Amino acid sequence: MSEHCEHGHETETTCPHCDSGTAVSTKVLASSSAKVALVGAPNTGKSTVFNAVTGLKAKTGNYPGVTVSRTVGIVKTADKQITLEDLPGTYDLTPVSIDEKVVSDVLAGKITGVAKPDAILLVADAGTLRRSFGLIADVISLGLPTVLCLTMIDELTRRGGSVDSGRLATALGIPVVAIDGRRKGSGTQVRSLLGDITGWAHPVIGPPSSGTEEWAAWTESVLAESDYRSPRPDPLTERIDRFLLHPVLGTLIFFAVMFGFFQTIFALAAPLQDYVETGFAELSTWVYDVGGDNWFTGFVADALIGGVGGVLVFVPQIALLFVLITFLEQLGYLSRAAFLMDRVMGTVGLEGRAFVAMLSSVACAIPGIMATRTMPSARQRFATMMSLPLMTCSARMPVYTLLIGMLIASDSKVWIFNAQGAVLFGLYLLGAMSTMTVAKIISVFSARRGPMMPFTMEMPPYRVPSWKLMLVEIWSPVKGFIRKAGTIILFATVVLWALLNLPMRSDADLVSAGIDPTDSTAVSTYTMNNSIAASLGHGVEPVFDPLGFDWKTNVAVLSSLAARETFVATLGQMSAAEDPEDPASRLEAARYDDGENKGEKVFTPPTIVALLIFFVYALQCTSTLAVLRRETATWRWPLIIFGAYSLLAWMMAYIAHTIAVWVW
Prior knowledge:
By secondary structure, the protein is of the alpha/beta class. It folds into 3 domains: 15-232, P-loop containing nucleotide triphosphate hydrolases (Rossmann fold), CATH 3.40.50.300; 249-445, no CATH class; 508-663, no CATH class. The strands form 4 sheets. The chain has a 7-stranded mixed β-sheet, with helices on both faces. A two-stranded antiparallel ribbon has the order 1-2. A two-stranded antiparallel ribbon has the order 3-11. Strand 1 (3-4) and strand 2 (10-11) form a beta hairpin.
């Protein structure tokens, strides 16, 4: 009959917390379910292991009381259901940042509503094993059943290093398994481990506290017992890094890479976009042909296809954006870019962690804001967080692509380069420079203070990207973009369709207004020009007239307050109502309906430039405002920067419009 110690462990001898001098104990998990925490330092392959085991079935959320992201996946084995929780990356269990404190508190069971893990799957990079021993010692000292998972074992072997995982397991007193998370079968290997969780053991004699002389001696003795040989430096990596990490040459290469990045987006995505756009236009025409001229057909063709479809045509650009980001990340270049830009960030009083947050914001400001949790300085975190909405996110991509396409011909060149791609690069650069400038200003005047910690980042070796892992990484943001089009943007377009078609006009009303009720295009145009939306658009004309906007553009700008992409959906819906067969051409040829500019073209170069600059600075994302509210625990700062960025957007757009009028 088994016995239980005061800590609740079912033991063969004694609990590791009760007596440090007895043999190895095994915690038996009789339940059909268990919780395992996935722990590891950044860039050790932890998330790769998680994705390999759970695939695309992970669920995300926040930990109670804090805004740190929580990622949980379910792994089903032969007789158990394992909850695998991917904790934020940490180098040890002595917390400095918010993320690191969450890791420490989760493992200690200190977060209300989050169960303490039954076991720990500890991930370490075999090539940098010595640097992981601080975390290894801290985790083993917790006394929970633990397995050490050595990743990138192929990289260790390729560079002449070696480790005997069996002898390492004996030295540490816990099971050790070596895997290559990038290769097929690694997920099965880890799932097999999780299925045998009842056999996971932990040592009774814990290691010395990390950072002490005893710990250093223990580390060296364990490495010696496991026949560990550090990998030799990679000559190719060192040669490449001489150029990529050079203060001057490396910076120039970085900007060249980013320039090529946006050239590629326009060169490859534009043809795909044309096919998708043509498909939606033909679908809209078919709906009118089949459904006839009635309000329901107009709703389907204009609101659903013209509105939501007008956003979905930019899926190729969004997908390619994340393909390139993921490619550079897996290649090992983005870590070096962050290290390189640490010097640049220092010129404005920030650090490399701020650049990591900025880089994350290229996809979306929300993960960028969350990435600031790794910053130990409260002042720098606040300054960076408040400035990140200025970074050009993927939501701006459809707006920029639409407007740049109307401003510059697709075959235009700047020297030998695509002019559209060059302008897109310039907009991203303007957003980044504005972010750094505003962060510096906020940092100087902020009352918050905090420690200035050195920026530490693991430099991964250069690797050939895995297309399988890239597809896993790319699918999530693309799916999020499509889901957004089917929820927020769909809701906005439905509301807008109602505003554009109310009040409804009878045939008698149309005849009295001189409109032929049988002319569907004339009816749509008249109804739209006399709708509630038109009244709203005309109502804000005093604000936007100086920027060259007409009432339809005003409505599109107002609708984009919910999400930037709805600007495109709104213009697409209004153009589709006037010309369902070719809404793109109708939009480009739009004319002022009234006022002193009546009959003149709306989208002139000055107006397009003003719109581009307006979208660089305006904070048009309710989700970002909500996250900022959670991060700051008040609506005060989100509302302040919303107002400040709206005013800044108008001022910069006015300046740009004035200069453009003079130039053109």
